[in-house]
């Protein structure tokens, strides 16, 4: 260690020490790490100025003074002393600068005018004192502790550590703890905390406090600065300027606080007394805190939340009371000019609002059932439901981008204002009430206010000023006004209701030199009878529907954008309007586009324009003088052009309508300016201004229609039409009425129709007479040429010489009469004779058309050919291609029919081939063979062992003997296959098979088949259809597909298998088996020992007799009627729902539960599980799973069931 004598400008290195005492002074010394400088220690003042502490240490002790010291990283300055009465002066420092990592410890010493920069720390302890300290961002000032002065009094004075007039700048920190004191601090954006206390050293002396609290007096907090007091500490005389905050936490106390634009926040357990809250100042209470003696001045704020319960508070004029989450306000009063704000999670009850008071439902809060009284304001930034607004009351929904919501509001004379991004739904506006829906069109701004499902009653008004509304209903006396770009969609206007749409606003999108006009718009309005819709001043209407009401479109305003690319004038306009009834008018620069007229009248007045109108049947479009129509479609209605009207585009007909032109024309020629398109039959042009004279003509040449009457003529240009003729008549005012007409037509005539041997024929069965002229009648002349014959039929008049007439009637009736006419050729020799028919149809419009394509060829033929085989038999006999009668004698003949409708007597043991035709074959003996193609074949005879194979057709087989095999194609066949042991196979159709004897097999395809008879042991297999099977005998096997089948199985030991159908099955005898696969069947037995199996489905089993069994598998639903003895019901799954009636009267009945059905382990489990079904029966659940089914013994009490009735297998 090196001792350096006091000297200026010296650097004190590691291990060096300098002692500045006995009145010495040094200047500009530097103390490095490990170096030590001591200033003072004698009874004369020693000083050190401009010292730089660069990691070393400077100790300023009794009678020492250090000025303008700079403390850098790692450096420390210790300022100490001792409080002795009339003793030496403690160490003192002034104008110290503490940089990052530097530290100044004031331990019973004093410091003035210290600057603490980022990372620097000033500690004031043990009665130390700091005055005028400035704490910059990142710097820290700490004050704590106290000391006792050595004095000739008791108890001696306690001296607390103190910081006076400190300034805590933005992000600076000031901590007062352990009995420290701060006086006149300015918190200028920094953070200051005052907390804790220490025991007073003389607490046992009467009159002395128990503890010495940390305190701060005269503090000023501003510019986002924060002062926090807690845990037994005390602040007094605090001034909170704008954006300054005082937090009083649990155990903290604030007295005499003045709030000038700042905020004081009290936590639970905090105390704030005698507080004064001035303009824009706020007191926030979060929990059970004491704020007694608080004075709230004009424009002050009280906020309560976090469990605070305030009862009986009065918010004075211009004050704001805000209830935060968890806050409770009871029995309080909001005075005129005062405001109550309710936040999400807050609660209020029994609050009185004076006239002029304001209630605010803030974001997240829902106010329900509130009444806005006269003079009161209700602002909704959250949600309001079921509000009533009385006369003089006002509800304001939304603020800037704080979108509120109001639902089910009733406005009884008051006002509701719906602002930006806000919504009002299901509002009712009564007399004197008004709803204003507003918005603003600006880039990146929130959307306009919205209202939906509003009802405007008599005397009510909805004003949509740049707002957006939908689904409004305007009743009698109600008004909806759209202005400045407002929008309304789906408004319904009832009788006496009115919509007014006018005005526009301008929107300036980014990047463009011109603004865009947003016009007031009514979209998809429905105007009922007595309702009104008025569009003026650049308003627009889209897709309106007029059902008996009145709609007007008129006026315009100058376009405000100065954009040379858009029209200079914004005209009122309507597009897509549907006029069903009522009236629509356009005038004074208004424009209609794409109007559909289903009824009512469209009146185009002076300076009005209607483009692209469609006029349907029953509707009229009147165009007055000065009115303008563009492209128009006449779809069945009338376009009436008054004198002076202007038509400047094509007029198109689409449906029988009328174009009426009232412009007078007495002489000379005139050309109609608009092209007339699509004119078709029945369309009319009424030239009421052109007088009708005899000899008036209408001629079509190319696309030009010229109408001449007397010395005047009118010319039209036609397009898209095939009309070449017009009828001319006089209209109701003496003008000319033109009607488009066309030729009738004859279609479907067939030449070369054939018949034979003078057989009757309907030669006109395919002919159709068509007259395109609506309402016209037609008559027909029929002229025969060539071979003679006779034509006959209803309505036919013979005019002689082969000429006939059908009188005038409609084309359809004439066609029907023509179809029924019969022609019979006159007798002629062998060969053919041809008759040709000419049909001449005359329409009542004066047009005639003829057709000569119909002809009939009659061929005369001899009778059938008789062919006789040899008497010895054993012959091959060939038939002709015509109709033959073939006699084969003897036996073993082979007969080839070769076509035609033949009758064949095959002899004994014959083989017959009928490739086509409707033939009859008579067989003798056994072992015959018959083959054939398609046709209707009848086969009789045979004594057995005969094989028949025929194609499709309606065949009839009546065979005898045994062992026949019959195979048929599709058709409706009638078969008796023999006397037994025969096989019948047929395709799809409605077949009838009658069995005899035993051992027959029948296999049929899909259809509605009937199989009956038999003596037993027969097998019947049918496809899908509604079949009937009624067999005799026993041991029958019956299999059917899906459908509605009726089966009588036989006399016992029969087996029935049915598919997914609706079947009725009756069993005879005993020991029958029925298997149902997913069906809905009804099965009844007669004697007993029968087994019925249900594999799924919904079936009805009816048991009588004894020893029967029902087997139920899968997810079935079977109803069992037990009128038998000893019935066994086998239940093999848990997901079925079955009912059994009569089981209680069957003591020998048994329920077998198999495959784990019901998951029962013993009969005792079953008996304990029996429950009442609530209807006098007993219910057994088949498990506890959600899909588990049950057995319902519907008329059997639990007492009627015994353990012997149940078996687990």
From TrEMBL:
UniProt-listed InterPro entries: AIDA, Autotransporter_pectin_lyase_C, Hemolysn_Ca-bd, Pectin_lyase_fold/virulence, RTX_toxin/Mannuronan_C5-epim, Serralysin-like_metalloprot_C
Protein's UniProt keywords contain Lipid biosynthesis: no
Keyword Secreted attributed: yes
Main location per the UniProt record: secreted
Pfam family for this entry, one: HemolysinCabind
Record GO cellular component, one term: extracellular region
GO MF annotation list: calcium ion binding
Localization in the cell: Secreted
Keywords for this protein: Secreted
Protein name (database record): Calcium-binding protein
